[in-house]
Write a structure and sequence with these properties.
With 119 residues, the protein is an all-beta fold. Helices cover 0% and strands 51% of the residues. It has no helices and eleven strands. Strands 2, 4, 5, 6, 9, 10 and 11 form a seven-stranded mixed β-sheet that branches. 30% of the residues are buried.
């Protein structure tokens, strides 16, 4: 069955960095677009970033552009999100999500990893 398992979250000070990982299994990872989506406390889901199946094309929300970098290693079935210059507004549960071909929908999600940006 499809599984997505995030890791790498934690507590970081403003201005700090974290690297999130998402280990995928149960499907042909290299055939799917992948996304990072986050949910801040008391707020709705916010799309953060996407990457195409081969890793050549990446997309970012304006709120993270220039600070976050999405990447993937198809040989390791792993998705990454490098987060630099973190701000308190970045406090959220971060999820990786598999994209549905030709849409902006997601069909599988991980359990999420908590990122807290605080001094």
């Amino acid at each position: 069955q499809v599984q997505l398992v995030e890791s790498g979250g934690g507590l970081v000070q403003p201005g700090g960095s974290l690297r999130l990982s998402c280990a995928a299994s149960g499907f042909t990872f290299s055939s799917y677009w992948m996304n990072w989506v986050r949910q801040a406390p008391g707020k709705g889901l916010e799309w953060v970033s996407a990457i195409n199946s081969g890793g050549e094309s990446t997309y970012y929300a304006d709120s993270v552009k220039g600070r976050f970098t999405i990447s993937r290693d198809n040989a390791k079935n792993t998705l990454y999100l490098q987060m630099n210059s973190l701000e308190p507004e970045g406090t959220a549960v971060y999820y990786c999500a598999r994209g549905v071909a030709g849409t902006r929908l997601y069909d599988y999600w991980g359990q999420g990893t908590q990122v807290t940006v605080s001094s």
